[in-house]
Amino acid sequence: MNIQSQAVRHEQMRIAGSLVDTDEHVEVFNPYSNKVVGTVPAARPEHVRSAFSRAAAFKPKCP
Description:
Elements: E1 9-10, E2 13-15, E3 18-20, E4 25-29, E5 36-41, H1 45-57
Parallel strand pairs: 1-5
Antiparallel strand pairs: 2-3, 4-5
């Protein structure tokens, strides 16, 4: 199968290992052909707050 015939791929965002999706999506374009190759969720402020909060609370297991 060549790249031209592949379907548009939808990915979810990951926040602290959890898959998160939203109703709104952002299209991802191939920079060479300018064709849509996928979509990703449009993060809202609450997603960003959650990601930063979880990152700040993270404690590594290695010393």
